[in-house]
Amino acid sequence: MRIQSRHYRTIWPHADGTVEAIDQTLLPHRFETRRLAALDDAVAAIATMVVRGAPLIGVTGAYGLALAAAADPADSAIEEAHARLAAARPTAVNLRWALDRLRALLLAAPPLERRALAFGEAAAIADEDALACEAIGDQGAALICAAAAEHPGRPVNILTHCNAGWLCAVDWGTALAPIYKAARDGVPLHVWVDETRPRNQGASLTAFELGGEGVPHTVIADNAGGHLMQHGLVDLVIVGSDRTTRRGDVCNKIGTYLKALAAHDNGVPFYVALPSSTIDWTMRDGVAEIPIEERDPSEVTHISGRAADGATTRVQLTPDGSPARNWGFDVTPARLVGALITERGVCAASEAGLRQLFPDLA
């Protein structure tokens, strides 16, 4: 997607055997990239959210395992790298999905062939993700067009939570891909962007993306969404998912569940956009089974931003001594999800709906 009129992917390999990724911790005020030259670099990039978003975490994990195989192609080294990368972020299933796929390929090959195989497969996973996300965009754009037909003469108002745009994936993204596709097709629309405390991925990353694409948008406080729905100012909600159970429960950034409840109460369609790599066919009950990452409390007690002099600074929000807790995700039960938007089509948030689209994976 576009940054200063130039097309970027979020991550890409170099001929020298290193990998480069956009450093998302610096956005929106600074655009820089970071070189990943070894396993440790990939683990750190995932853990510190230099890269974030379920699809991109998976691709970064694959490249991290490739970097490890280049340094030491032995079975034991690959297993150790797999374990370290998988532990970097526990909630998003794409990470383990990509790591398991690459590990199986490497362990079945002679050690001398593993480096080339690893980088080739990591690149294939990246390309597949970009194609899947573009297809999600096509599938979801039809829903936005239908909403536009129901409300002629004004833009379609869409609410989204967190960042599920191209920065969460290799390209296009999940929840924002339908918005980009519809906007490029000339559908008038406007996006309500939840700030998404505590890391503010909406206010920083989603707003950054939408501005680069020229999509009309407004940043709102996280708790404003219900008010907007009550007053008819939201036509539909589209969010992403870091893990989706086989019955259609979805795990997404903390606060998603509350948006789904508000949408249900006000009759607003609530859609979840996700690639098939985000479906965890081993899990049924998302609330009971999905591991929820708890992050550093300082993300709640402190905030970063740009000062008047242009410098980026970090300030404390809470009184000294006040404890904080910081759960990264929550689970929205399938009963609150209007439909799932995938690369193969739109389906009911149910086991039957997912199996109909993905009989080969179920």
UniProtKB/TrEMBL annotation:
<dbReference type="GO" id="GO:0046523">
    <property type="term" value="F:S-methyl-5-thioribose-1-phosphate isomerase activity"/>
</dbReference>
<keyword id="KW-0413">Isomerase</keyword>
<protein>
    <recommendedName>
        <fullName>Methylthioribose-1-phosphate isomerase</fullName>
        <ecNumber>5.3.1.23</ecNumber>
    </recommendedName>
</protein>
<dbReference type="Pfam" id="PF01008">
    <property type="entry name" value="IF-2B"/>
</dbReference>
<feature type="active site" description="Proton donor">
    <location>
        <position position="242"/>
    </location>
</feature>
<dbReference type="InterPro" id="IPR027363">
    <property type="entry name" value="M1Pi_N"/>
</dbReference>
<dbReference type="InterPro" id="IPR000649">
    <property type="entry name" value="IF-2B-related"/>
</dbReference>
<dbReference type="InterPro" id="IPR011559">
    <property type="entry name" value="Initiation_fac_2B_a/b/d"/>
</dbReference>
<feature type="site" description="Transition state stabilizer">
    <location>
        <position position="162"/>
    </location>
</feature>
<dbReference type="InterPro" id="IPR005251">
    <property type="entry name" value="IF-M1Pi"/>
</dbReference>
<feature type="binding site">
    <location>
        <begin position="252"/>
        <end position="253"/>
    </location>
    <ligand>
        <name>substrate</name>
    </ligand>
</feature>
<comment type="function">
    <text>Catalyzes the interconversion of methylthioribose-1-phosphate (MTR-1-P) into methylthioribulose-1-phosphate (MTRu-1-P). Also catalyzes the interconversion of 5-deoxyribose 1-phosphate and 5-deoxyribulose 1-phosphate. Part of a bifunctional DHAP-shunt salvage pathway for SAM by-products.</text>
</comment>
<feature type="binding site">
    <location>
        <position position="201"/>
    </location>
    <ligand>
        <name>substrate</name>
    </ligand>
</feature>
<dbReference type="GO" id="GO:0019509">
    <property type="term" value="P:L-methionine salvage from methylthioadenosine"/>
</dbReference>
<keyword id="KW-0486">Methionine biosynthesis</keyword>
<comment type="similarity">
    <text>Belongs to the EIF-2B alpha/beta/delta subunits family. MtnA subfamily.</text>
</comment>
<comment type="pathway">
    <text>Amino-acid biosynthesis; L-methionine biosynthesis via salvage pathway; L-methionine from S-methyl-5-thio-alpha-D-ribose 1-phosphate: step 1/6.</text>
</comment>
<dbReference type="InterPro" id="IPR042529">
    <property type="entry name" value="IF_2B-like_C"/>
</dbReference>
<dbReference type="InterPro" id="IPR037171">
    <property type="entry name" value="NagB/RpiA_transferase-like"/>
</dbReference>
<feature type="binding site">
    <location>
        <position position="89"/>
    </location>
    <ligand>
        <name>substrate</name>
    </ligand>
</feature>
<keyword id="KW-0028">Amino-acid biosynthesis</keyword>
<feature type="binding site">
    <location>
        <begin position="52"/>
        <end position="54"/>
    </location>
    <ligand>
        <name>substrate</name>
    </ligand>
</feature>
